[in-house]
Amino acid sequence: MMKIKMLFLLIMAFFVASCGEEEKQDQVLLPSNLQISIIKETNGSVKASFIAVNANFFRVNFGLPNSTAERATGNSASFTYREPGTYTITVQAHSTENDFISSSQSVTLTNEDLGIGIPNAGYESPLSYDGYNLVWQDEFNGTSLSGDWVHELGDGCPDLCGWGNRELQFYRRENTELKDGHLIIKAIQESVGGKNFTSSRIKTQGKKSFTFGRFDIRAVLPKGQGIWPAIWMLGDNITEVGWPACGEIDIMELVGGNANGRDNTVHGTVHWDNNGQYANFGGSVALQQGIFNDKFHVFSVIWDESKIVWLLDNVPYHQIDTTPQALDEFRKPHFFIFNVAVGGNWPGSPDSSTNFPQQMVVDYIRVFQKN
Asked: Which controlled-vocabulary keywords does the entry list (predicted)?
């Protein structure tokens, strides 16, 4: 009987020892010492870097509503935010899918971080010129557009789909705002009216038009592949004679993109009907440093009975002699148009390098005419 009891005790001891060994083998070693580094890069891009002891992989949640933690490749992950705000970035260090530790850090993105802030620096033109009177101006100091402006809406259809240039945006009132003494026209990547982008286009047609004068517009321009801001004029008689017989004066156009001659270059052009044939004549100027998104510049034309001169920050860069009879369009009244197009024949479509939203910020428009 004593031997049986001893045998039973030995068996029980072996069983308990075996169970303990299995529990030790089943026990998971969690990661430890999780460290996170958050760096704000350009145009809303944020990079999270992380390390931990005994981590087999990481998951990251960049703090957007209804988002989940996504598995990272290696020890870092990046995300581009589209809206300003404070976001909580959470990193999980995993030993297995279900066994992990986590840590969080907050990051605040401003409009400047997103590349859509309004700079303070830049050229500013005078309020008077010798031999000229200031006859009209809009300093955009209110909370809404004055009665001198009207919106053009939609995608140009059915008469002028894509606005005659295969553009990709749908124009809306909502993409125009007045803020801190500035007019802001914003291009946004969103689906409206069957288009993947929205923007705004405003004009003074039927409200304000001018024949001859000096026109100064102080603005900061958007940037990026497929972005096409313009400050321009069309002849009042466009509804009677059509385009290009009405005449077009492009005070400023920029064709966005990273390549030289894109974000750092603006164009001044005229379009007209040359005895039944379409004609145009244009010039351009490039910045020696930086791009037109960096700070304010003043885009001007001086238009008189014999010529049109284009100026950047009061320095002439292009001119056309308008005395030939075929350029009679440029002795008649024209109205203003401000817009930011997306895509089109000239700039091409946006690509993965294009950050949205983009905006054109106008500080003022001033019209001077000779005494």
From this structure: Signal
Split into its structural domains, the chain has a count of: 2
DSSP track, 137-170: EE---SSS--TT-EEE-BS-TTTSGGGGTT--EE
Q: Is residue 24 part of a domain?
A: no
CA angle in degrees (0–180, nearest 5) for 32-37-40: 160
Q: Does 70 share its domain with 208?
A: no
| CATH number of the CATH domain containing 55 | 2.60.40.10
The CATH number of whichever domain residue 249 belongs to comes to 2.60.120.200
pLDDT of amino acid 12: 58
CA distance 252 to 341: 13
The owner of tokens 């705002």 is 177
Q: Which residues constitute the domain of residue 64?
A: 32-109
57-72 as b/e, with b when 16 or more CB fall inside 10 Å?
Answer: bbbbbbbeeeeebeeb
For 126, the 3-state DSSP assignment is coil
| Spatial contact of 80 and 355, defined as CB atoms under 8 Å apart | yes
- Answer yes or no: is 8 within a domain: no
Which residues form the catalytic set? 248, 253
pLDDT averaged per 10 residues in sequence order, the chain, 371 residues: 54 52 67 97 91 98 96 96 93 97 96 85 97 98 97 95 95 97 96 96 98 98 96 98 97 93 96 96 97 96 98 98 97 98 95 91 98 95
Among 77, 109, 141, identify where a domain stops: 109
Same domain, 229 and 321: yes
pTM of the model: 0.80
Classified as helix, coil or strand, 194 is coil
Identify whether 316 is preceded by a cis peptide bond (ω within 30 of 0): no
